[in-house]
Specification:
With 332 residues, this protein is an alpha/beta fold. The protein has a domain at 7-189 and 228-253 and 298-312: NAD(P)-binding Rossmann-like Domain (Rossmann fold, 3-Layer(aba) Sandwich), CATH 3.40.50.720. It is 39% helix and 17% strand. The protein contains 11 helices and 15 strands. It has helices at residues 17-27, 47-53, 67-71, 101-119, 154-175, 200-209, 229-242, 260-271, 282-286, 301-307, 315-331, and strands at residues 7-12, 32-37, 60-63, 81-84, 122-126, 139-140, 180-185, 188-189, 214-217, 223-225, 227-228, 248-251, 257-259, 277-280, 297-298. The protein is globular. The mean pLDDT is 96. Residues 91, 187, 198-200, 203, 215-217, 222, 224, 260, 292-293 line the site of uridine-5'-diphosphate.
């Protein structure tokens, strides 16, 4: 029996990079009980030690399976809220899923929508800033058009799959009593991010700590706005709480807008490394399916004005804390 005032929350992908921080944040409220569904395929955490240090872990339960397997179970308890984060990730990580990304993502989304409609559950869908297709020379505002580039790539499949899920969710909100909001995160970074998906900051840090050259793609002119994972988790919780149903919110820190060459130089300086910067062609590293994204940085006014979201971590702090995490990990 649930005590009065308790909130039952499902987090798909709750043991992923963003998910694990979201779980920690939500468990700080004693009324929250959390159930995680995670297949652990791309999880960066060691589950046993994560659970050991987790405050409030007695209010956490989990199923290690896919979203599809979870919803195929004969009996699922009732959740008040669902945060949907389970997804393939990373510019390199997505490559091996070429051709099946859309089916899996859309399938998961419909399972979630059906469940939410049946149980009166609120949904927060974690989409991506890639839906903009680069926006206006990188500037991405929620009211802008989305741009579909002329070349079909795995990255495009990822972006249009996320967009298809958004459209299905928003239109269901309009034709039913579904209460759902969408988050579009911009370049999430910080402690626990793994190199496996190909993400730039942990790659540069590991290269710098090993005194190896930093692999800057092209000339390093790409523009990104790196956003601390805990600021992202805070934005997600605020979107669930206070966002308008059927609306999308950019969660990204415009103050951290930078070029990749600048990021590489900061990493070298902060780590005190002797590494050089080497300019490389990513297709040589990852094969012909690899595709670079357009520049992207957010207009975050909607989240700031409507949700009271205030990103706290500047770029150097994100780098420093990521360095500390990776250093500690290397000592294990
Ligand atoms: N990048 C790079 N070297 C690397 C990995 C990434 O120069 O070893 C660049 C990449 O081309 C992109 C930026 O860093 O311009 C951010 O890459 P990431 O994969 O982290 O995110 P995304 O491209 O999906 O925004």
């Amino acid at each position: 029996m649930e005590a009065e005032g308790q909130k039952s929350i499902l987090i798909t992908g709750g043991f992923g990079f963003i998910g694990s921080h979201l779980v920690e944040m939500l468990l700080r409220k004693p009324e929250n009980r959390i159930h995680v569904v995670d297949s652990m395929v791309t999880s960066p955490i060691d589950l046993e030690s994560y659970l050991q240090q987790l405050k409030g872990s007695e209010r956490l339960s989990y199923d290690l399976c896919t979203v599809r397997e979870f919803f195929a179970k004969p009996k699922i308890s009732r959740f008040d809220e669902i945060y949907h984060l389970a997804s393939v990730v990373g510019p390199v990580g997505v490559l091996k899923h070429s051709g099946i990304i859309l089916r899996n993502m859309v399938g998961d989304t419909y399972d979630l929508i059906d469940y939410c409609l049946d149980h009166g559950t609120k949904l927060c869908d974690i989409s991506t800033s890639e839906v903009y297709g680069g926006g206006r020379d990188g500037y991405c505002c929620e009211n802008d058009s989305m741009i579909i580039p002329p070349k079909i790539s795995v990255r495009l499949e990822y972006a249009v799959s996320k967009l298809a899920c958004e459209v299905a969710t928003v239109n269901t909100c309009r034709t039913s009593n579904l209460n759902a909001k969408i988050v579009r995160p911009f370049n999430v970074a910080g402690p626990r991010q793994a190199t496996a998906g190909g993400f730039v900051l942990p790659r540069f840090i590991k290269q710098a700590l090993a005194q190896e050259p930093l692999t800057v793609y092209g000339q390093g002119k790409s523009v990104r706005a790196f956003t601390d994972v805990r600021d992202i988790a805070d934005g997600i919780v605020r979107t669930m709480c206070c966002g308008r149903s059927g609306e999308a919110y950019n969660i990204g820190n415009p103050a951290n807008k930078t070029t990749i060459l600048d990021l590489a130089q900061r990493v070298v300086q902060i780590t005190g490394s002797k590494s050089e910067i080497s300019f490389v062609d990513p297709k040589v590293l990852w094969g012909p399916l690899f595709e670079e994204a357009n520049d992207k940085y957010p207009d975050a006014d909607r989240a700031i004005n409507e949700l009271g979201w205030r990103p706290k971590a500047g770029l150097d702090r994100i780098i420093r804390e990521s360095v500390e995490y990776i250093r500690a990990e290397r000592c294990d």
